[in-house]
């Protein structure tokens, strides 16, 4: 059985790590490169950087951040935010990112997923899906930082991006983001049970127990969190110890 991964997420805006609730009310948390280096040395299996307010003008800033991170971090890291073209993917991978996450542009131009996977390999391409529950009980794909309802059904979209060649899905619950009441287990199971590629679950973690619940009640490949790690409420070590104690196959060779 493949070991589960624990992944800190660094949402970056104007060169600083920020965190909010339901994608709003952002708070400054620190320098992304320094935080990445800290997590790399303290048990993180991977890292995810998301430039949550990316524009073409700030692309150079993000590229510089990726280069500096690649010099200091020796675990895989994914970078996303404002990725619209093959050239964007090329620039991030060339700067040192291991994987690139595509979100809004993928829903607008699905062929970008196919083209990127063909050129760089599926293992490099992550499709980020921000999901919000509708009044009818289904979930819709949200774009533009969780602000725009695309009208796409989340399950149908997940199946499509898999067929287009995505190697992994980063699934975030907009409803649970930053709330700290636990991961959205029904949403996660709906996706995991519909596709065969790995899923990283994001949104809602507030306790180490929430990671344990995630791994015990779903078949996700990884859990991602921000607030509990950035605010030093809990450490990755504490999460891993709890999971191992309860029989979860967790990556631990570098840390314990």
UniProtKB/TrEMBL annotation:
<dbReference type="InterPro" id="IPR006062">
    <property type="entry name" value="His_biosynth"/>
</dbReference>
<comment type="function">
    <text>IGPS catalyzes the conversion of PRFAR and glutamine to IGP, AICAR and glutamate. The HisF subunit catalyzes the cyclization activity that produces IGP and AICAR from PRFAR using the ammonia provided by the HisH subunit.</text>
</comment>
<comment type="pathway">
    <text>Amino-acid biosynthesis; L-histidine biosynthesis; L-histidine from 5-phospho-alpha-D-ribose 1-diphosphate: step 5/9.</text>
</comment>
<keyword id="KW-0028">Amino-acid biosynthesis</keyword>
<dbReference type="InterPro" id="IPR013785">
    <property type="entry name" value="Aldolase_TIM"/>
</dbReference>
<dbReference type="InterPro" id="IPR004651">
    <property type="entry name" value="HisF"/>
</dbReference>
<dbReference type="GO" id="GO:0000105">
    <property type="term" value="P:L-histidine biosynthetic process"/>
</dbReference>
<feature type="active site">
    <location>
        <position position="11"/>
    </location>
</feature>
<dbReference type="GO" id="GO:0000107">
    <property type="term" value="F:imidazoleglycerol-phosphate synthase activity"/>
</dbReference>
<dbReference type="GO" id="GO:0005737">
    <property type="term" value="C:cytoplasm"/>
</dbReference>
<dbReference type="InterPro" id="IPR050064">
    <property type="entry name" value="IGPS_HisA/HisF"/>
</dbReference>
<keyword id="KW-0368">Histidine biosynthesis</keyword>
<dbReference type="InterPro" id="IPR011060">
    <property type="entry name" value="RibuloseP-bd_barrel"/>
</dbReference>
<comment type="subunit">
    <text>Heterodimer of HisH and HisF.</text>
</comment>
<dbReference type="GO" id="GO:0016829">
    <property type="term" value="F:lyase activity"/>
</dbReference>
<comment type="similarity">
    <text>Belongs to the HisA/HisF family.</text>
</comment>
<keyword id="KW-0963">Cytoplasm</keyword>
<protein>
    <recommendedName>
        <fullName>Imidazole glycerol phosphate synthase subunit HisF</fullName>
        <ecNumber>4.3.2.10</ecNumber>
    </recommendedName>
</protein>
<dbReference type="Pfam" id="PF00977">
    <property type="entry name" value="His_biosynth"/>
</dbReference>
<keyword id="KW-0456">Lyase</keyword>
<feature type="active site">
    <location>
        <position position="130"/>
    </location>
</feature>
């Amino acid at each position: 059985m493949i070991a589960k991964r624990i992944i800190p997420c660094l949402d970056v805006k104007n060169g600083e790590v920020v965190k909010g609730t339901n994608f709003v009310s952002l708070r400054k948390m620190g320098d992304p490169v320094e935080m990445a280096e800290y997590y790399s040395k303290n048990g993180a299996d991977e890292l995810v950087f998301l430039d949550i307010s990316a524009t073409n003008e700030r692309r150079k800033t993000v590229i510089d951040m990726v280069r500096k991170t690649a010099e200091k971090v020796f675990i895989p890291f994914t970078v996303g935010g404002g990725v619209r073209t093959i050239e964007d993917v090329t620039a991030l991978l060339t700067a040192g990112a291991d994987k690139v996450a595509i979100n809004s542009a993928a829903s607008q131009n699905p062929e970008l997923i196919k083209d990127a996977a063909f050129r760089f390999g599926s293992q490099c391409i992550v499709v980020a899906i921000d999901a919000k529950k509708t009044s009818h009980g289904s979930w819709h794909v949200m774009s533009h930082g969780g602000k725009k309802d695309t009208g796409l059904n989340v399950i149908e979209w997940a199946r499509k991006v898999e067929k287009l060649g995505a190697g992994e899905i980063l699934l975030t619950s907009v409803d649970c983001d930053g709330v700290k009441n636990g991961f959205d287990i029904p949403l996660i199971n709906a996706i995991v049970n519909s596709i065969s590629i790995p899923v990283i679950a994001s949104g809602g973690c507030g306790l180490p127990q929430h990671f344990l619940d995630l791994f015990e009640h779903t078949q996700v490949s990884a859990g991602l969190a921000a607030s509990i790690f950035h605010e030093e409420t809990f450490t990755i070590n504490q999460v891993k110890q709890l999971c191992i104690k309860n029989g979860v196959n967790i990556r631990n060779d570098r840390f314990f």
